[in-house]
Amino acid sequence: MRQSYVWSNIGSLLVITGFAMLLPMAAGLYYGEPEFADFGRMAAITILAGLGLHELTRIRTRKRISLREGYALVTYAWIVVTVFAMVPYLLTGTFDTITDAFFEAMSGLTTVGASVLDDISGTPQCVLLWRSVTHWLGGMGILVLFVALMAGHGTGAMQIFKADSSGQAQSRKEPKIFETAHGLWNIYMFMTVVAIVLYYFAGMGLFDAVNHGFSVVATGGFSTKILSIGYYDNAMIDWITVFVMFMAGINYSLYFYALRTRSLRCFVNSLELKVYMGVALTATLAVLWFIAPAYDGNLPLAVRHAAFQVVSILTTTGFITCNFEQWVFPAQFILILLMLCGSCAGSTTGGIKIDRHVILAQKAVQEIRRFLHPRMVTRLKSNSQLVDDDVVLSVMTFFYIYLFLAAAGTYLICMLGGGMMDSLIAVLSCLGGVGPAIGLWGPMESYSGVSAGVKWILSAFMLLGRLEIYTVLVLFKMPFTHRKPKKQVVELEHLEENAIVEPMVREN
Prior knowledge:
The chain is an all-alpha fold and 508 residues long. It contains 22 helices and two strands. Strands 1-2 form a two-stranded antiparallel sheet. Strand 1 and strand 2 form a beta hairpin.
């Protein structure tokens, strides 16, 4: 593996990150906050560091990248960008320790939304904006942004795109990978603008609208208020949030295809979307059934709270409008199950994803039928297309590793003094990118009181969940010395001609 190639591209990503810091700097300058200078200095340092790293390690001849290098680039980039993203928290005095600053930055970039910030009301607005900006950068994936910006520069984009876990899949058809990356980011930005405008006209101030627009489209969960969306107690804002969260949980490749073909047929034919809608509706009705008696006949409010919390957890956004820890246990249990579900692949959400559950369910039914009819030969289908056996095996392996990691993380936190149920739900929340948990670290509490060791463990699980496990774990099997590329290396020209995303994603 060519370490120089990986670090050269990470340098380019740091430049993007540095320019992103100019936005909170401008906000701090506008609001007269002295912390703007800290963001200005850090922006300059990050840009210069990125340019220096890029120039020192740049390879000027071979413009190809292997899949192994793509995996390394994605994982290293997320860690390095997180390190630089945490520094403004330290410079502004928001956090006193590297542990807290790293946790907040990692939670932001991985769109988990778990926070160690207690005094949100007393936090400078430029810092609050930086939290939301990290969400927005991490939502679609800073690597996808990099691919879009570096179009035509010989970046080996397909391998980067494949290694990033935003959920987009590849096949041997057109359009070009750069066109796809540009298209996805254009959709992402359009949804962001729509969310900001809707929030503003619903009664939010411009600053809050921008922050919540960044956060909701990225399905992150950071808010400018300690009570999250519940602070506003506004039905219109609640339903706008539910709508945007749900739309952000849909596979972005469906939007891409709909715009490309000028047809909604891909939405109608998507099995994953149908299941996603069914899960959201069923879970909302089930929660409503259990919590309705506690609302003393105020059915509209009960419906609003049930739908909001269900969609928020299902899409791993993490916004809240009420303290669902006060709900009866069956309603809470449904929310815990939703943490294991996730939304559609190819969205900004975390979790296991709907498409994997669909494949596992189909496989279970197939095996039952095969047990009853041993001679029957069947193949799994999704959207009228055959699902390869290697895809099924990959999904089953992913599911096993996911549960194993959840158990291992729970054990580690218990060893550090956490309760079993509190530890398990916290791990599931961070691994699934949800943010708020139930119990000790519930929706109304932060992670500020957690020990440093637990914070580092949860930070690691945030990264694993955001990059969907394989991208990180595969590094432990990688040789870190350069080998002559063989079949793994694909010519850039060939990739550009044949790369695309598909509505039914095959991620791994």
